[in-house]
Structure formats: structure tokens, C-alpha cells
Write a structure and sequence with these properties.
The protein is of the alpha/beta class and about 150 residues long. The protein has two helices and eight strands, in the order ααββββββββ. The protein is flat and about 50 Å long.
Length: about 150
């Protein structure tokens, strides 16, 4: 029985010794982060919250929002008031952490959109915990679009 216990301890130590540290694709500095996001959003126009944005049919747009990895489950969720005017093309998150050993580092959340037809629409982002719902949102950003 004692031999079995020693073998289990040995196998456990061997298993942990063979584990590799997690790798991270996080940029090494803010310039690298901005270059990575710039490459991802190439050909798209960044839109700003709180102002009326005039856009053209066929335009590619993007929204860039910051979030913390250690924020207790909060995340940006969005709705489009008229999805026949604008559609989501893609979304991605980019790590701001330069040290893969640091837990809870921030992320940049980027969502790309395409204008489909003329009209007015609003893309509204709310920062909340999914299990609490939008009524408990801690932040809001609205993007008002006039497509021509």
C-alpha cells in the first residue's frame, strides 16, 4: 500500500513537471496592441459614441471598447435598433496584458459592422453581467447612425 502511495505521488509530480506554462498572444507593448487592432480593423471607420454619425451604404465600421478581465463578470452586450440597416460583420477581443502570469488583465473589445441600406439606426452597448440583465448595466454607449 505504501508503494502504491509513493507511485501516485511520483506520477503526480511527473505530470506537473511536464506541464508547460500557458502561452499568450498578448502584445508586448501598447504600440503592438494598437498595430494588432489596426490590422484587424483595416478598411473600417471607427465610430464615436454620443454623436450623430453620417455613414454611407456599404461602409465598414467598428466600435472599440475597453473592459477589465477582473471586473466580476461584466461584459459589453449590444443591440441594433434596426438590423436591416446595419449588420454585425465580426467581433474580437484583444488582450492588453503583457505578462501572461497576470490574471484579470484588461481587454479591448472590437465589433465590426457593415451598412446595408439607407436609414437611421442606433447601436447601443451596455456593460452588465449576463445573469443580472441590462437593467443593472453599469455603463452605456450609444452610436447613432444616419446611413445614406
Amino acid at each position: 500500500m505504501k508503494l502504491l502511495g509513493i507511485n501516485l505521488v511520483f506520477l503526480t509530480l511527473l505530470m506537473f513537471a511536464s506541464c508547460k506554462a500557458p502561452t499568450s498572444s498578448a502584445p508586448t507593448n501598447i504600440s503592438d496592441l494598437n498595430a494588432e487592432i489596426s490590422s484587424y480593423t483595416s478598411g473600417s471607420k471607427q465610430i464615436s459614441a454620443g454623436t450623430l454619425q453620417n455613414v454611407a451604404v456599404g461602409d465598414q465600421l467598428y466600435v472599440r471598447l475597453n473592459s477589465l478581465g477582473s471586473d466580476g463578470g461584466y461584459w459589453w452586450y449590444y443591440t441594433i435598433s434596426d438590423p436591416t440597416i446595419v449588420q454585425t460583420v465580426d467581433e474580437n477581443t484583444f488582450l492588453t496584458n503583457t505578462d501572461p502570469g497576470v490574471a484579470g488583465a484588461g481587454v479591448v473589445y472590437v465589433v465590426k459592422f457593415k451598412i446595408l441600406k439607407s436609414g437611421n439606426t442606433t447601436i447601443e452597448f451596455n456593460d452588465y453581467r449576463s445573469w443580472e440583465g441590462i437593467q443593472d448595466s453599469i455603463a452605456n454607449q450609444s452610436f447613432n447612425l444616419v446611413a445614406q
